[in-house]
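User: Last request for today: this protein with (2S)-2-hydroxybutanedioic acid, please.
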Amino acid sequence: LTAAAAAVALSVSAGAALAQCDDGEMVIKFSHVTNSDKHPKGIAASLLMDRVNEEMNGVACMEVYPNSTLYNDDQVLEAMLNGDVQFAAPSLSKFEQFTKVFRIFDLPFMFKNIEAVDAFQASETGQAMKESMTRRGLLGLQFWHNGMKQFSAKVPLLDPADAKGLKFRVQTSDVLVAQMEALGASPQPMAFSEVYGALQTGVVDGQENTWSNIYGQKFFEVQDGITETNHGVIDYLVVTSVDWWDSLDPAVRDQLATILAEVTEARNGESFAVNEQAKQAIIEAGGEVRQLTPEQRQAWVDAMKPVWSQFEGDVGAENIAAAQEINA
Ligand code: LMR
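Assistant: Here's the final one, the structure of the complex with (2S)-2-hydroxybutanedioic acid:
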């Protein structure tokens, strides 16, 4: 088996519907890390693939590789710059090597819900962020939603002091490292595909993620429970390479951009519901979901919000003010 054939075999076994590309069609590879059918990003990527392959038949053919079967998020952006993959949608926490503008999305309690995130992204400041990496060869095309993050650990988490001394997996983001340090916890940056094993074997004690990721990766099976903190957000940038995008025939590029915009609008409107379904599925599967009293939640806010001042220089006080105005 060649490496490529192995990747195809793996992704087929992981439930991906790989397209059959015809001779002469331009192949567009889209690599991502979640499942393809019960997750806001996975569903959106599958819909994008279906529409491209139907509406651009004979011209372009999209292949989606879900579940980290082609690249994980630490590899995919380099692979894109090398021309080995054309589309990806890493979370906004994963762009630290390229830009610091997305750090605002990692700051704890910055956005009260996904609608606030959407409104901020739609603003002039948010839209300009899509072009923050063009000099480094990457172009953001659209923001895709996941949802709000929840905490889980091997022990119940009700008071911030419960997290003290525990090891938490975080995405590779300095803001998230600082957030966990503010709790007196030990942050461990790690690829998404490794988290389940790390929780199971005790390499880490806890993690933070959205309902759809906690369900999709079965984290709840190897944790004491999940606390509904809604303390942060996981959202995505659909990204491509400037060189590849510029090389496209303008009509082809326009059609791709239009399909992507329509898929974005349709699926972003469903992201909250997809996460709610995942939360229900966790409960039905016997997972423990804990709620905080208003006083308990305020204690988490008080413990984590001081992190804002550490990153105000990177994200801009005016942007923090704009985000807070949207929340109001
Ligand atoms: C994570 O690494 O936890 C997330 O960014 C995974 C994802 O793509 O939702």
